[in-house]
Amino acid sequence: MAITITMGIQKGGCAKSTTTGVLAYLLSRDGYRVLAVDMDSQGNLTEMLSRKPSREFAEKSVLEAMQERDPSPYIVKISDKLDLLPAENFLATFPRWIYTGETYLGGYTRYTGKSGLILDDTLDKIRDQYDFIVIDTPPSLSEQTTNALCASDYVVMMFECSNWCYSAVPNFIESVEGARVHGRHNTRLIGILRIMNDARRSDAKAFNEMIEEDYPNQVFKTIITRKAPIGRLSLYGFEDNAELKQALRQYEDFYKELMERVKGG
Ligand SMILES: Nc1ncnc2c1ncn2[C@@H]1O[C@H](COP(=O)(O)OP(=O)(O)OP(=O)(O)O)[C@@H](O)[C@H]1O
Ligand SMILES: [Mg+2]
Fold this sequence. Notes:
The chain is an alpha/beta fold. 42% of the residues lie in helices and 17% in strands. The protein has 11 helices and 8 strands. Helix 7 links the parallel strand 6 and strand 7. The chain is globular, with a radius of gyration of 17 Å. The chain starts with a strand and ends with a helix.
């Protein structure tokens, strides 16, 4: 049965999509069977992995998979070990569909279960086909995010060392706790990844230290710094990328730490 890991924080631009893509790639490179799920209507993970505009997945996305509770018709093969359940703009209509039953195409399909468990129910159909499912979330504590959290065994909280990210942390941790209580996977925070660090800034250093003092057992030792090759993963992706090795260097350390925690249960 797949182990499911969500990358999250409701603050925008904290490398959630980048980290989800890298983790999916590193797991598949290690020989694991991986499904990457995009739960953000921006479709950034979708574009990063598929190398196509996300709008090409209109009517063929995670939204339709959830409305039909069956991901299989919408799963896209990326490489031998890596599959993608894509997202596009209309995933933004997910909450409206939950509460009214109306689909953005004018159809009507009511979901009668708990609103936070729709993705979980959907992924149940294919969990035996993968070793890992990794999920990218939008920059909000929306239905998309709560569905991802409730479908997950583990959550990696992204922490960009800024004041507004620091303010986001308590609500995010409460949401993970909510998923643990209301979901079916005993959802746990597996770690806090400090990300996009600008080593020259003293305020960044201070926030890194503050989060470590607040959550000493949760922070990963690895801190990902700002590096152009990491930023350019959004441009070049993982195939035929001349600077891939540089882009992955710091992430390999995070990956090792994460896998030790996953294997330690
Ligand atoms: N370590 C890094 N160094 C430089 N640029 C980075 C790094 N990590 C991510 N980026 C870039 O920063 C931007 C934000 O990253 P990303 O889109 O992964 O964040 P996000 O949390 O998914 O954003 P959103 O909240 O909008 O979904 C992107 O342009 C990405 O390419
Ligand atoms: Mg994103």
